[in-house]
Fold this sequence. Notes:
Elements: H1 4-12, H2 28-40, E1 44-50, E2 70-77, E3 83-86, H3 88-91, E4 96-100, E5 106-115, E6 120-125, E7 148-153, E8 161-175, E9 181-188, E10 200-202, E11 208-215, E12 226-230, H4 231-244, E13 250-251, E14 254-256, H5 259-265, E15 270-275, H6 280-283, E16 298-303, E17 306-307, H7 311-321, E18 326-333, E19 336-343, E20 345-346
Amino acid sequence: MLAQPWLQRQFFSATEPRAIEPRGDLAEWERTTIAIFDRVSPSVVQVAGRAGGDTFAGAEPDEQNGSGGAQTGTGFVWDAAGHIVTNAHVVQGATEIAVRLANGDVARAELRGIAPNYDLAVLRVSTSRPLPPPIPVGSSGDLKVGQAAFAIGNPFGLDQSLTTGVISALKRRLPTSAGREISNVIQTDAAINPGNSGGPLLDSAGRLIGVNTAIFSPSGSNAGIGFAVPVDTVNRVVPGLISRGRVPTPGIGIVAAPESLATRLGIEGLVVVRTVPGSPADRAGLRGVDRMSGLVGDVIVSVNGTPVRRLVDLTDELEQAGVGNRLELEVLRGRSTVKVAVEVVDIGGRGP
């Protein structure tokens, strides 16, 4: 027994390469994942923007690298005309934009349109070579919590990275830098890190279901909570960016109080702080907070019969109605309830 270790080393040491063990078939879910990546990844690109006159050489793989530095993220082919979809925050403020394709080719790109309210932007690539095919478009209206989700992007500049997970939640709200909220946002635990922004979120059929836009992380790295703009919103906004360079922002011209204020006051509805002079809300006679007494004015409680409890409820109805149409508001005014008809207009960068 004392000699056993010596005998094992003497006669059983693997001094030659070991024989390869046959693997057997891949699992069905593995084949699905591989097929999705093989089919979609060629259409996913890296986007780099630079402010000022600096060149792209030596750009750090950082989604936001400060004033004058590189901004990098992800994008994907939208159509055969050379349009690339990405996040607005990836290219906002950039004076030069370049796109690196999956095959390594680099091409200059111009900003075709931008919609900060939805954190979406469209680029037009200048290249004589044909681009990879557009990613098939799915729907976000029938998604279910728990179904598989796949993200392809360039986290920390590491291009063509695939992460997998599930849809963790639906109908989240995500504030934008423009002061509005994106509604019906998809939450996923597929790893999304800086550099993934603007990349596609896919379902198990390899269809686009969202555009990855943000993470929730105290450390700045993936913490299992990522967000994507739903594809139904993308499919509505992008055509307008391609054809006109912008999309209208439907509104009625009010400044609404934070939800926390309504909660503290025990109010169910959207508190009107003030109306924009000359806006449809102003012309319809909506009343804001009395600055002298501090008394609450009008509280919007429904739009076209749909209850309004928060700002996103109103903006959802505004987007569904569209610019040029009219809405009927049910407003709580003191102890009375009144109905007010207002026109939906394009309010640009102003309030709802």
